[in-house]
Amino acid sequence: MPVYSRDCLEGQGVLITGGLGAIGRVVVSRLLAVSASVAVNDVLPEDQAAREMQAAGWDKARCHYLRADITQPAEAQKLVSEARARLGRLDVALCHAGMTVSCPILDYSSEGWNKILDLNLKGAFLVAQAAAKTMIAQGARGKIVFTSSWVQDVPWPEITPYNVSKSGIKMLMRGMARELAAQGIRVNSVAPGIVAVGLAKHQWDAEPDYRRRAEKAIPLGHMQPPETVADAVVFLCSAASDYMTGATLLVDGGCSLYPMN
Ligand SMILES: NC(=O)c1ccc[n+]([C@@H]2O[C@H](COP(=O)([O-])OP(=O)(O)OC[C@H]3O[C@@H](n4cnc5c(N)ncnc54)[C@H](O)[C@@H]3O)[C@@H](O)[C@H]2O)c1
Protein backbone atom coordinates (compact mmCIF):
# COMPACT_ATOMS: atom_id res chain seq x y z
CA MET A 1 0.00 0.00 0.00
CA PRO A 2 1.57 3.34 -0.98
CA VAL A 3 2.84 5.44 1.92
CA TYR A 4 0.70 8.56 2.57
CA SER A 5 -2.30 7.09 0.78
CA ARG A 6 -5.49 7.90 2.68
CA ASP A 7 -5.71 4.45 4.20
CA CYS A 8 -2.08 3.35 4.56
CA LEU A 9 -2.52 2.94 8.35
CA GLU A 10 -6.10 1.67 8.29
CA GLY A 11 -6.77 -0.75 11.15
CA GLN A 12 -3.53 0.25 12.91
CA GLY A 13 -3.59 1.27 16.57
CA VAL A 14 -1.02 3.96 17.36
CA LEU A 15 -0.10 5.40 20.77
CA ILE A 16 1.70 8.75 20.89
CA THR A 17 3.10 10.34 24.05
CA GLY A 18 3.12 14.13 24.23
CA GLY A 19 0.52 14.10 21.47
CA LEU A 20 -0.97 17.47 22.36
CA GLY A 21 2.35 19.29 22.02
CA ALA A 22 3.29 21.51 19.11
CA ILE A 23 4.70 18.78 16.87
CA GLY A 24 2.60 16.01 18.41
CA ARG A 25 -0.69 17.50 17.29
CA VAL A 26 0.53 17.77 13.70
CA VAL A 27 1.62 14.13 13.87
CA VAL A 28 -1.79 13.07 15.26
CA SER A 29 -3.62 14.94 12.48
CA ARG A 30 -1.46 13.21 9.87
CA LEU A 31 -1.99 9.77 11.47
CA LEU A 32 -5.76 10.28 11.45
CA ALA A 33 -5.61 11.45 7.84
CA VAL A 34 -4.08 8.12 6.84
CA SER A 35 -6.82 6.24 8.75
CA ALA A 36 -4.95 5.16 11.90
CA SER A 37 -6.72 4.90 15.25
CA VAL A 38 -4.79 6.97 17.77
CA ALA A 39 -4.39 7.01 21.55
CA VAL A 40 -3.17 10.49 22.40
CA ASN A 41 -1.25 10.79 25.67
CA ASP A 42 -0.35 14.02 27.40
CA VAL A 43 -0.43 15.56 30.89
CA LEU A 44 -3.14 18.13 30.16
CA PRO A 45 -6.37 17.86 32.20
CA GLU A 46 -9.13 15.88 30.49
CA ASP A 47 -11.45 18.85 29.87
CA GLN A 48 -8.70 20.96 28.32
CA ALA A 49 -7.59 18.04 26.17
CA ALA A 50 -11.19 17.45 25.04
CA ARG A 51 -11.51 21.12 24.00
CA GLU A 52 -8.23 21.04 22.10
CA MET A 53 -9.08 17.79 20.34
CA GLN A 54 -12.47 19.14 19.33
CA ALA A 55 -10.88 22.36 18.05
CA ALA A 56 -8.45 20.25 16.00
CA GLY A 57 -11.42 18.47 14.44
CA TRP A 58 -10.13 15.00 15.33
CA ASP A 59 -12.55 12.12 14.74
CA LYS A 60 -13.71 11.01 18.22
CA ALA A 61 -14.33 7.48 17.01
CA ARG A 62 -10.66 7.01 16.12
CA CYS A 63 -8.94 9.26 18.65
CA HIS A 64 -8.82 8.74 22.42
CA TYR A 65 -7.16 10.90 25.05
CA LEU A 66 -5.22 9.15 27.81
CA ARG A 67 -3.83 11.40 30.51
CA ALA A 68 -0.67 10.04 32.12
CA ASP A 69 2.68 11.26 33.40
CA ILE A 70 5.05 8.94 31.57
CA THR A 71 7.90 9.59 34.00
CA GLN A 72 5.99 7.49 36.58
CA PRO A 73 6.45 3.74 35.95
CA ALA A 74 2.95 2.76 37.09
CA GLU A 75 1.34 5.48 34.95
CA ALA A 76 3.39 4.54 31.89
CA GLN A 77 2.35 0.89 32.21
CA LYS A 78 -1.30 1.78 32.76
CA LEU A 79 -1.15 4.11 29.75
CA VAL A 80 0.01 1.34 27.45
CA SER A 81 -2.58 -1.17 28.66
CA GLU A 82 -5.36 1.43 28.35
CA ALA A 83 -4.16 2.32 24.86
CA ARG A 84 -4.37 -1.32 23.85
CA ALA A 85 -7.84 -1.63 25.39
CA ARG A 86 -9.15 1.50 23.65
CA LEU A 87 -7.54 0.73 20.30
CA GLY A 88 -8.24 -2.99 20.35
CA ARG A 89 -4.57 -3.62 19.51
CA LEU A 90 -1.29 -1.77 19.78
CA ASP A 91 0.61 -1.74 16.50
CA VAL A 92 2.83 1.31 17.00
CA ALA A 93 4.14 3.21 20.00
CA LEU A 94 5.48 6.70 19.31
CA CYS A 95 7.72 7.76 22.21
CA HIS A 96 7.45 11.40 21.33
CA ALA A 97 7.14 13.52 24.52
CA GLY A 98 10.21 15.58 25.29
CA MET A 99 11.34 18.92 26.66
CA THR A 100 14.33 21.20 26.82
CA VAL A 101 15.48 24.26 28.72
CA SER A 102 18.11 26.60 27.34
CA CYS A 103 20.83 27.23 29.94
CA PRO A 104 24.66 27.27 29.94
CA ILE A 105 26.07 24.01 31.32
CA LEU A 106 27.80 25.85 34.19
CA ASP A 107 24.42 27.04 35.45
CA TYR A 108 22.44 23.81 35.06
CA SER A 109 21.01 22.56 38.36
CA SER A 110 20.75 18.88 39.21
CA GLU A 111 16.95 19.31 39.34
CA GLY A 112 17.00 20.73 35.81
CA TRP A 113 19.15 17.82 34.65
CA ASN A 114 16.82 15.26 36.30
CA LYS A 115 13.67 16.79 34.81
CA ILE A 116 14.97 16.58 31.25
CA LEU A 117 16.48 13.10 31.57
CA ASP A 118 13.39 11.82 33.40
CA LEU A 119 10.99 12.84 30.64
CA ASN A 120 13.11 12.48 27.51
CA LEU A 121 14.95 9.27 28.35
CA LYS A 122 13.36 7.45 31.30
CA GLY A 123 9.79 8.21 30.19
CA ALA A 124 10.57 7.03 26.66
CA PHE A 125 12.13 3.84 28.03
CA LEU A 126 9.16 3.11 30.31
CA VAL A 127 6.61 3.47 27.50
CA ALA A 128 8.73 1.61 24.94
CA GLN A 129 9.33 -1.29 27.31
CA ALA A 130 5.64 -1.57 28.26
CA ALA A 131 4.67 -1.32 24.57
CA ALA A 132 7.11 -4.07 23.57
CA LYS A 133 5.72 -6.37 26.28
CA THR A 134 2.18 -5.67 25.09
CA MET A 135 3.12 -6.33 21.45
CA ILE A 136 4.73 -9.63 22.41
CA ALA A 137 1.71 -10.61 24.54
CA GLN A 138 -0.72 -9.89 21.70
CA GLY A 139 1.42 -12.03 19.42
CA ALA A 140 1.66 -9.34 16.76
CA ARG A 141 4.62 -7.63 15.19
CA GLY A 142 4.84 -4.02 16.19
CA LYS A 143 6.81 -0.83 15.74
CA ILE A 144 8.34 1.56 18.22
CA VAL A 145 9.40 4.99 17.01
CA PHE A 146 11.34 7.43 19.18
CA THR A 147 11.44 11.14 18.48
CA SER A 148 15.10 11.99 18.77
CA SER A 149 16.82 15.07 17.31
CA TRP A 150 19.76 15.99 15.11
CA VAL A 151 21.50 17.02 18.36
CA GLN A 152 21.80 13.36 19.32
CA ASP A 153 25.20 13.62 17.61
CA VAL A 154 25.92 17.34 17.80
CA PRO A 155 26.81 19.44 20.88
CA TRP A 156 24.42 22.32 20.15
CA PRO A 157 25.21 24.89 22.85
CA GLU A 158 23.22 25.58 26.03
CA ILE A 159 21.00 22.49 25.87
CA THR A 160 23.59 19.91 26.86
CA PRO A 161 21.30 17.77 29.09
CA TYR A 162 18.85 17.61 26.17
CA ASN A 163 21.65 16.55 23.80
CA VAL A 164 22.62 13.86 26.33
CA SER A 165 19.01 12.64 26.51
CA LYS A 166 18.77 12.31 22.74
CA SER A 167 22.16 10.53 22.55
CA GLY A 168 20.69 8.16 25.12
CA ILE A 169 17.59 7.68 22.97
CA LYS A 170 19.85 6.70 20.07
CA MET A 171 21.41 3.88 22.08
CA LEU A 172 18.09 2.89 23.68
CA MET A 173 16.60 2.62 20.20
CA ARG A 174 19.53 0.57 18.87
CA GLY A 175 19.58 -1.69 21.91
CA MET A 176 15.85 -2.36 21.76
CA ALA A 177 16.04 -2.93 17.99
CA ARG A 178 18.78 -5.53 18.52
CA GLU A 179 17.02 -7.32 21.36
CA LEU A 180 13.50 -7.29 19.89
CA ALA A 181 14.20 -8.08 16.24
CA ALA A 182 13.58 -11.79 16.80
CA GLN A 183 10.06 -10.96 17.98
CA GLY A 184 9.41 -8.97 14.83
CA ILE A 185 9.38 -5.63 16.63
CA ARG A 186 10.99 -2.83 14.62
CA VAL A 187 12.50 0.03 16.58
CA ASN A 188 13.61 3.24 14.88
CA SER A 189 13.96 6.98 15.52
CA VAL A 190 13.02 10.10 13.66
CA ALA A 191 15.49 12.93 14.15
CA PRO A 192 14.08 16.36 13.29
CA GLY A 193 16.11 19.54 12.94
CA ILE A 194 15.06 22.98 14.20
CA VAL A 195 11.28 22.91 13.98
CA ALA A 196 9.23 26.09 13.62
CA VAL A 197 7.31 25.65 16.88
CA GLY A 198 7.65 26.35 20.60
CA LEU A 199 10.93 27.44 22.14
CA ALA A 200 12.93 27.25 18.91
CA LYS A 201 10.38 29.39 17.03
CA HIS A 202 10.25 31.87 19.89
CA GLN A 203 14.05 32.16 19.95
CA TRP A 204 14.19 32.44 16.14
CA ASP A 205 11.70 35.32 16.28
CA ALA A 206 12.94 37.10 19.43
CA GLU A 207 16.67 36.47 19.81
CA PRO A 208 18.86 37.82 16.97
CA ASP A 209 21.94 35.90 18.21
CA TYR A 210 20.01 32.63 18.23
CA ARG A 211 18.63 33.31 14.78
CA ARG A 212 22.08 34.03 13.33
CA ARG A 213 23.43 30.80 14.83
CA ALA A 214 20.40 28.76 13.74
CA GLU A 215 20.41 30.16 10.20
CA LYS A 216 24.02 29.04 9.84
CA ALA A 217 23.16 25.63 11.25
CA ILE A 218 20.39 24.85 8.73
CA PRO A 219 21.89 24.20 5.30
CA LEU A 220 18.41 24.37 3.71
CA GLY A 221 18.15 27.86 5.23
CA HIS A 222 14.72 27.90 6.87
CA MET A 223 13.08 26.44 9.94
CA GLN A 224 11.53 22.99 9.65
CA PRO A 225 7.77 22.73 9.03
CA PRO A 226 6.32 20.27 11.60
CA GLU A 227 4.46 18.51 8.78
CA THR A 228 7.82 17.17 7.57
CA VAL A 229 8.27 15.43 10.93
CA ALA A 230 4.75 13.99 10.68
CA ASP A 231 5.43 12.62 7.18
CA ALA A 232 8.57 10.86 8.41
CA VAL A 233 6.66 9.40 11.36
CA VAL A 234 3.92 8.07 9.05
CA PHE A 235 6.63 6.44 6.92
CA LEU A 236 8.15 4.78 10.01
CA CYS A 237 4.68 3.55 11.08
CA SER A 238 3.87 2.19 7.63
CA ALA A 239 4.67 -1.07 5.86
CA ALA A 240 7.10 0.89 3.65
CA SER A 241 9.61 0.85 6.53
CA ASP A 242 9.20 -2.84 7.37
CA TYR A 243 12.83 -3.66 6.55
CA MET A 244 14.17 -0.89 8.82
CA THR A 245 15.18 -1.47 12.41
CA GLY A 246 17.82 0.25 14.53
CA ALA A 247 17.87 3.28 12.22
CA THR A 248 17.70 7.01 12.76
CA LEU A 249 15.76 8.76 10.03
CA LEU A 250 17.30 12.24 9.87
CA VAL A 251 14.78 14.80 8.62
CA ASP A 252 16.66 17.92 9.59
CA GLY A 253 17.26 20.19 6.58
CA GLY A 254 20.92 19.15 6.79
CA CYS A 255 21.53 20.41 10.36
CA SER A 256 23.46 17.26 11.16
CA LEU A 257 26.01 18.17 8.46
CA TYR A 258 27.87 19.80 11.32
CA PRO A 259 30.11 21.76 11.74
CA MET A 260 28.34 24.79 10.35
CA ASN A 261 30.35 27.13 8.14
N1 LIG B 1 10.77 21.66 18.56
C1 LIG B 1 11.88 21.28 17.94
O1 LIG B 1 12.58 22.04 17.28
C2 LIG B 1 12.30 19.84 18.02
C3 LIG B 1 13.40 19.41 17.26
C4 LIG B 1 13.80 18.09 17.32
C5 LIG B 1 13.13 17.21 18.15
N2 LIG B 1 12.06 17.65 18.88
C6 LIG B 1 11.39 16.67 19.74
O2 LIG B 1 10.03 16.57 19.37
C7 LIG B 1 9.25 16.22 20.52
C8 LIG B 1 8.11 17.21 20.70
O3 LIG B 1 8.66 18.51 20.81
P1 LIG B 1 7.75 19.84 20.79
O4 LIG B 1 8.64 20.94 20.34
O5 LIG B 1 6.48 19.59 20.07
O6 LIG B 1 7.50 20.03 22.36
P2 LIG B 1 6.15 20.45 23.15
O7 LIG B 1 6.62 20.92 24.50
O8 LIG B 1 5.30 21.35 22.35
O9 LIG B 1 5.43 19.05 23.33
C9 LIG B 1 5.76 18.13 24.32
C10 LIG B 1 4.47 17.56 24.91
O10 LIG B 1 4.82 16.61 25.91
C11 LIG B 1 3.92 16.76 26.99
N3 LIG B 1 4.51 16.25 28.24
C12 LIG B 1 5.36 16.90 29.08
N4 LIG B 1 5.63 16.14 30.14
C13 LIG B 1 4.96 14.97 29.97
C14 LIG B 1 4.84 13.79 30.75
N5 LIG B 1 5.50 13.67 31.92
N6 LIG B 1 4.05 12.78 30.31
C15 LIG B 1 3.37 12.91 29.12
N7 LIG B 1 3.45 14.02 28.33
C16 LIG B 1 4.24 15.03 28.76
C17 LIG B 1 3.68 18.26 27.07
O11 LIG B 1 2.51 18.58 27.81
C18 LIG B 1 3.61 18.64 25.61
O12 LIG B 1 2.28 18.61 25.12
C19 LIG B 1 10.22 16.18 21.68
O13 LIG B 1 10.69 14.85 21.90
C20 LIG B 1 11.36 17.04 21.21
O14 LIG B 1 12.58 16.74 21.85
C21 LIG B 1 11.64 18.94 18.85
Features:
single chain; 261 residues; alpha/beta; Rossmann fold; seven-stranded parallel beta sheet; 7 strands; binds nicotinamide-adenine-dinucleotide
Short description:
It contains eight helices and seven strands, in the order βαβαβαβαβαβαααβ.
Give structural notes.
- This protein has helices spanning 22-33, 46-56, 73-87, 110-137, 160-180, 198-206, 208-217, 226-237; strands spanning 13-16, 37-42, 63-67, 92-95, 142-147, 185-192, 248-251.
- The chain has 261 residues and is an alpha/beta fold.
- It has one domain (13-194, 225-250): NAD(P)-binding Rossmann-like Domain (Rossmann fold, 3-Layer(aba) Sandwich), CATH 3.40.50.720.
- A seven-stranded parallel sheet has the order 3-2-1-4-5-6-7, sandwiched between helices.
- The chain starts with 12 loop residues before the first strand and ends in a 10-residue tail after the last strand.
- The model has no long low-confidence stretch (mean pLDDT 96).
- The chain binds nicotinamide-adenine-dinucleotide (NAD).
- Nicotinamide-adenine-dinucleotide (NAD) binds next to helix 1, strand 2, helix 4 and helix 6.
Shape, principal axes of CA atoms:
globular
How can the largest sheet be summarized?
7 strands, parallel
CATH class reads: Alpha Beta
The tally of beta strands, per DSSP, is 7
Number of helices: 8
